[in-house]
Write a structure and sequence with these properties.
By secondary structure, this protein is an alpha/beta fold. The chain has 16 helices and 21 strands. The protein binds iron/sulfur cluster (2 copies). It catalyses: 2 L-glutamate + NADP(+) = L-glutamine + 2-oxoglutarate + NADPH + H(+).
C-alpha cells in the first residue's frame, strides 16, 4: 500500500503534443507506471511506482517523455534530510529492514579521484602504444620467489596453476538468479572472446555454460548452492566467498519468488524456497578451517586450479589477508565498500566496510613486509569505473581488477537501483521471461567486448605515457602516483607522496 506521507521520488513529464498514444511506454514498464485511459484518450502515469529506469524514455518513438527528480521536498534540515525522514516513514509503516541494491551511494571520499598518474617528460621518454609493443597480459596465482635451474642450467618450471588474462580485468561474481540467463550468457561469451574470466557467483553454473569453463570462475559460498564435483571441475578457478563489499558480515537472501525453473535446478534447491546463504561458512571459524576448505577444493580439482578467497574490505583487512596468504590460497579478492549487489540491507550497504583503495594499499604493504607477497595474487573490486581506476589499482599493488557495475552498465543497466524487486526493465536483474528477452546476448556480449577493448587501449596509452610497457612493470609502482587533497595519514596508508613532491 502506498505510504501517504511519501511523495513520489520522480515526476513523469509527458509532452501531450508529441504523444501519439502508441502505448509503448505502457507495454515496456514492468512497474506499471503508464496506463491508457480510453475515456480520456490519454496516457496517464502512476508516479508512485516509477523507479527512473529510463526504459520508457529510451523507447518512446516521439521522445515525448521525461523523468525528473521530484523537487517537492519534506521540510529537511542539516540533521534530518528528506531521505532520512522518508526512511523513518517507511519503517514505521512496514516494521521491516530497508532493502537496497547496487553500491553505497553516499558522498564518502573516492580515493581514485584524489590520486593522479605520472607521465614521462624529457628523460625516460614515453612509449607510443600504436608503434611499440605493450604487454597487458597478466598471470594470477602463486609465483616462485626466483627463477630456478637444474644442474644443467635448464629452467625448472614448477609454477603452481595460473590464470592467464589478456588484460588485468575480470567480470566479478553475479549469480544466476540475481541476474538473468541472458546476462550470464553475455558475460560468458564476452569473457571467452576477450581472453579474461567471468564469475558464476553463488548460484551454480547453468548446464548451457559449461562450454565456457576455461573462462569461468566457479564460486563456493556459505550456502553451497549448485556446488558438486562437475561444477568444481568445470571452472578455471574456484573462488571461496567469505565476504562481499556491499554487505560485509552478513549472508545473502534470494527470495523464493526468484527460485523458478532453471534457477532452482542450477542451485539444486526446490522451486519457491528462499535461497538463504548464512553469514558464516559453518565449517570456517579460523584460518586453519579456511585452509582445510582451500585444500579440500584443491584436492577435488587435482591441484590443477588456483583457489581464490574473496573477502570484503574491512578494518583489519591487512591482517586478514596475511592469514589468507598463509592458508594456501592462490589469489585473494578484496571487495571494497562501494561494491554492487542485487540486494542488501540499506544500513549494512551504507555503513559497513572501508574504501578499496586504502584496503589494497595496506594489504600489499603488509604482504611485502612479511615477505609473502609472491604467495598470492591480489584482485580488487568495488567500484572500478574506468581504465584509469584500473591503472591506479595496479600501481597501488593489485594484480588485476574485478568489475561488475561497469559490466552491467555495458549491458544497458540504468542504475535505477531496484534490482531487489526482480522487475528489471532492461532484462538484467530479473527472471521474468518477458523481461529477460529484452537483453539480447549477441548485443550484450558485443557491448562488453567493446568496453573492455576501449579500456585496454586506454590502459596502454596511460602506461605508454609513464614510459612503462607492461602491467608487470606497473604493478606496485607507487612512484607513478601522487595524491591531491589528502592528509598525511591518508598518504601514508596509500604509500604515495603528495602532488608537488
Ligand atoms: S511511448 Fe511515448 S508516444 Fe507512446 S504512448 Fe508513451 S509517451 Fe506516448
Ligand atoms: S540491473 Fe536493472 S534493476 Fe538493477 S539497477 Fe540496473 S536497470 Fe535497475
Amino acid at each position: 500500500m502506498q505510504n501517504i506521507y511519501i511523495n513520489p521520488e520522480f515526476e513523469v513529464i509527458r509532452n501531450e503534443n508529441r504523444c501519439i498514444k502508441c502505448r509503448v511506454c505502457e507495454r515496456q514498464c514492468a512497474n506499471e507506471v503508464h496506463s491508457y485511459d480510453a475515456d480520456l484518450n490519454l496516457l496517464i502515469s502512476d508516479e508512485t511506482k516509477c523507479v527512473n529506469c529510463q526504459r520508457c524514455v529510451s523507447l518512446c518513438p516521439t521522445k515525448a517523455l521525461k523523468i525528473v527528480k521530484n523537487d517537492c521536498r519534506l521540510r529537511e534540515n542539516a540533521n534530518w534530510s528528506d531521505s532520512t525522514i522518508k526512511e523513518i516513514y517507511k519503517q514505521a509503516s512496514s516494521g521491516g529492514v530497508l532493502l537496497s541494491s547496487m553500491g553505497n551511494p553516499n558522498p564518502l571520499p573516492v580515493y581514485w579521484d584524489k590520486i593522479l598518474i605520472n607521465a614521462s617528460q624529457v628523460t625516460n621518454p614515453p612509449i607510443d602504444p600504436l608503434r611499440e609493443p605493450m604487454e597487458t597480459k597478466v598471470f594470477l596465482g602463486k609465483k616462485p620467489e626466483k627463477v630456478q635451474r637444474d644442474k644443467n642450467g635448464n629452467l625448472i618450471c614448477n609454477t603452481p596453476p595460473q590464470l592467464e588474462l589478456s588484460m588485468p580485468v575480470m567480470f566479478s561474481a553475479m549469480s544466476y538468479g540475481s541476474i538473468s540467463y541472458n546476462a550470464h550468457a553475455s558475460l560468458a561469451r564476452a569473457a571467452t572472446e576477450l581472453g579474461i574470466l567471468y564469475n558464476t557467483g553463488e548460484g551454480g553454473l547453468h548446464e548451457d555454460f559449461y562450454c565456457y569453463g576455461k573462462n569461468t570462475i566457479v564460486q563456493v559460498a556459505s550456502g553451497r548452492f549448485g556446488v558438486h564435483k562437475d561444477y568444481l571441475e568445470a571452472g578455471a578457478a574456484v573462488e571461496i566467498k567469505m565476504g562481499q563489499g556491499a554487505k560485509p558480515g552478513i549472508g545473502g537472501h534470494l527470495p523464493g519468488a526468484k527460485i523458478v525453473g532453471d534457477v532452482s535446478r542450477t542451485r539444486m534447491i526446490p522451486e519457491g524456497s528462499d535461497a538463504i546463504s548464512p553469514a558464516p561458512h559453518h565449517d570456517i571459524y579460523s584460518i586453519e578451517d579456511l585452509r582445510q576448505l582451500v585444500f579440500s577444493l584443491k584436492e577435488a580439482t587435482e591441484y590443477q586450479k588456483p583457489i581464490i578467497v574473496k573477502v570484503a574490505a574491512v578494518h583489519n583487512i591487512a591482517a586478514i589477508a596475511s592469514g589468507i596468504a598463509r592458508s594456501g590460497a592462490d589469489i585473494i579478492a578484496i571487495d571494497g565498500f562501494r561494491g554492487g549487489t542485487g540486494a542488501a540491507p540499506t544500513r549494512i550497504r551504507d555503513n559497513v566496510g572501508i574504501p578499496i583503495e586504502l584496503a589494497l594499499a595496506s594489504v600489499d604493504s603488509r604482504l611485502r613486509e612479511e615477505g609473502i607477497r609472491n604467495n598470492v595474487s591480489l584482485v580488487v573490486g568495488g567500484s572500478i569505473r574506468s581504465a584509469s581506476d584500473v591503472v591506479k589499482a595496479i600501481a597501488l599493488g593489485a594484480d588485476a581488477c574485478y568489475i561488475a557495475t561497469a559490466a552491467v552498465l555495458a549491458l544497458g543497466c540504468h542504475l535505477c537501483r531496484t534490482c531487489q524487486t526482480g522487475k528489471c526493465n532492461w532484462g538484467i536483474a530479473t527472471q521474468n521471461p518477458e523481461l529477460v528477452k529484452r537483453l539480447n546476448p549477441d548485443i550484450g556480449s558485443q557491448h562488453l567486448i567493446n568496453l573492455m577493448t576501449a579500456w585496454k587501449h586506454e590502459i596502454k596509452e596511460l602506461m605508454g605515457g609513464m614510459g612503462i610497457n607492461s602491467i608487470e612493470a606497473l604493478k606496485g609502482n607507487r612512484l607513478m602516483l601522487r595524491g591531491v587533497g589528502l592528509n598525511d595519514r591518508e598518504l601514508s596508508i596509500l604509500g604515495i607522496s603528495h602532488a608537488g613532491e
